[in-house]
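Model the whole thing, not chain by chain.
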Amino acid sequence: MTSAQTAEQAPQADAARLRLDVWTDLGCPWCYVGIHRLRRAVDDLGVADRVELVLRSFELDPGASAEPLTIPEIFTRKHGLTAQDAAQAEARIQKLAHAEGLPFTTERLHANSFDVHRVLQLANQHGRGVDFFETVQQSYFAGQINPYQHDSLIAVAVETGLDGDMVRDVLAGHGYADQVREDETAGRRLGVTGVPFVVLDQRYAIAGAQSAAAYAQAIAQVLETR
Amino acid sequence: MAMIASTGEGHTEAEATDRLTGETAAEPHTTPADVPTIAALIQLALDGDTCVPGQRCD
C-alpha cells in the first residue's frame, strides 16, 4: 500500500461496506444540510448496514482567530456587508435547513475550527465521529453552544459517548493534529477545493450539497457496481 | 464519464449530471488498481452548493 493510500483511508475502514468519505467543516452550512441529506438518503434506501460514513477534516478558514466573531461580524468584516445584508444572505440556506427540520440561526459564532477537527479525529478513531460531528453541528447552527470553547466541545463529546478526560487531554495538547493535516492533504490530492465533498468507494465524487434524492441515486448506482 | 475538474481531462458538468441522472450508459473505465493516488475521480455531480475558503457560504 502506498503512503498516499494510507493518508486517504480513515481508521475504521470496513472493506465490506461502501465507504462514503465526506470532507467537511463545522462552519459550513452546506455541509450541515448536505450531511443530513446524505444520511437521509442512506436511510431512505435502507442500506445503512451496507454503508460506512466517514467524516474527514477540511478547514475553510484555517487562519481564523481562536476568539469567535458573530456571523454578521464575519459578513461585515470579511465581505463588506451590513448585518441586514448578512441576514438576507443566509436566508436561503436557513430556509433549506428548516425544510430539513434542522435548526438554523445567524446568531452563531465563527472562529478557528482546528480543535473541533482534532476531536472529530478522536471520535472517528472510536467510531463516534458522525454522532459527535452531527451533534456539534446541530447545537452550533441552533446557536446553543460556542463550540470553540473547550468545555462546550467536551460536553458534546461526552454526550456522544466519548470519555471526557480523554477529550480534555487531547484538547490540552496537540493530539490528532497530524490526522487533521493528513485529511486535508488527502483532500487536496483529490482536488477538494470546497465542502461538502463526498467520495464514494474511493472512486466517485460528488461536489457540493445535493438533494437527498440525488445522493440516494448515486449511492444506489455505486452499490450496483460493487 | 467525467473526471475531476482539476485534472483538466474531464467531460462537461452536464455530462456528469447526466451520469447521475442515468441518462448516459457509459461505464467507468477506472478500476481500483487504476487509482492508487485517486488522482482522478469519476464525478457523479459537480453543481451542488459548496463552501469555498475565502468566499461567502450563502
